[in-house]
Amino acid sequence: MPVKIRLQRHGKKGKPFYWVVAADSRAKRDGKFLEKIGTYNPVSNPAQIELNVDAAVKWLKNGAQPTETARRILSYKGVLLKYHLLGGVAKGALTMEQAEAKFNAWLEEKAGKISSKEEKLAKDKASAKANALAAEKEVNEKRKNAAAAKAVEATEEVADAEVAANEENNETEA
């Protein structure tokens, strides 16, 4: 039976959520599957991927072929690296301890990259919010100045009208 590691769509329209599954290649996209390996949420930034690495490696060893998107997800989470390292262990090029050490070092490096991206996104969001607040304060200040200028003009007009009325009263009395 030809097995594929592929994505199975769930979620609402416009808000996809995927399960990463091992399924018979002849089964429907959202149909019967052999095992659920993980989940993938592309809506969040960065995308959230939960994956059972050992189960994915087991399916790869049994001959399962990942689809292109699933291959990218497996590569991102290090499944293909672990599969490659276990192939080296099977050939005798590495010991199991060396393979685990390499894989753990790669995982730590990847976690550092992800955390720096999350920090950058949070920093950008905070600076955008601060810029928007500054722009809003500037607009409010302009509005206050314009309103104050109109009020001054209105009081000057009223004062001019009163002066003109007083002069007219004085002329009529005289």
TrEMBL record:
One of its GO terms (cellular component) is small ribosomal subunit. Residues 135-144 have a biased composition (Basic and acidic residues). Keywords: Ribonucleoprotein, Ribosomal protein. GO terms for molecular function: structural constituent of ribosome. It holds the Pfam family Ribosomal_S16. GO terms for biological process: translation. Residues 135-174 are annotated as: Disordered. Signal peptide: none annotated. Transmembrane segments: none annotated. Belongs to the bacterial ribosomal protein bS16 family. This is Small ribosomal subunit protein bS16. It comes from Capnocytophaga felis. The gene is rpsP.
